[in-house]
């Protein structure tokens, strides 16, 4: 190997080491702001920007306060969600859009579930979450709200609705161990049923992907009030 080749090899090795150090520094910087290292432990808590441990419990709002709150987007409701990661992602969605998230029991997970905390990153204390023991409690606590159910059984598209900040966008549980709750999704308290269009050969979208599409369409109609 010539001296020139050795010099080029040394330069390449130094560049690789520099890239590794930069990547590690980036991860450390992200962790300072509540993001997760790739090798976190299963019981490690998500932290806020100041390093304080947080969870969805810190974001809880009473049903009474939720009914009185002024919002720039409709409320989002998950009826009996089963997958903690989906609800964690919904918490993040609600934090960035200013949406209040309603969770109707029974839930398929504990509110301190690690996967829920991971998916919500450090947004848990920036969102508002309301826990309802059953669907009737949701209806009774939000008497002035119109409930719009998102279901594949609907004929009307979600874009055919004129949304209001007082609306509740209702989503049923992920497919799995409980049947589609048509007594809820098509019940007497539901004012409208709508669906998202899909190719006919495919079954469904991820729950929070659907919720994101719906919330942003409603927020768009309301001129993205509160956003920038």
Strand content: 15-25%
Annotated CATH homologous superfamily of the largest domain: SPOUT methyltransferase, trefoil knot domain
Find the count of extended strands (DSSP E, 2+ residues). 9
Helix content: 25-40%
Biggest sheet, spatial arrangement of strands? 5-4-3-8-6-9-7
Number of domains: 2
Summarize model confidence as the mean pLDDT.
78
C-alpha-based Rg, rounded: 22 Å
Low-confidence stretches: 26-45
Largest sheet: 7 strands, parallel
From the coordinates shown, what is the CATH architecture of the largest domain?
Answer: 3-Layer(aba) Sandwich
Morphology call: elongated
Query: Could you tell me how far the N terminus lies from the C terminus, measured between alpha carbons in angstroms?
Result: 58 Å
Describe the structure.
This protein is an alpha/beta fold. The protein folds into two domains: 1-27; 61-220, Alpha/beta knot (3-Layer(aba) Sandwich), CATH 3.40.1280.10. Helix content is 36%, strand content 15%. It has helices at 3-32, 63-68, 84-97, 114-120, 135-141, 182-185, 207-221; strands at 46-47, 53-54, 75-79, 100-104, 128-132, 147-150, 156-157, 168-171, 190-195. β1 (46-47) and β2 form a beta hairpin. The N and C termini lie far apart (58 Å). Mean pLDDT is 78; it is low at 26-45.
Could you list some keywords that capture this structure?
single chain, 228 residues, alpha/beta, Alpha/beta knot, 2 domains, two-stranded antiparallel sheet, 15% strand
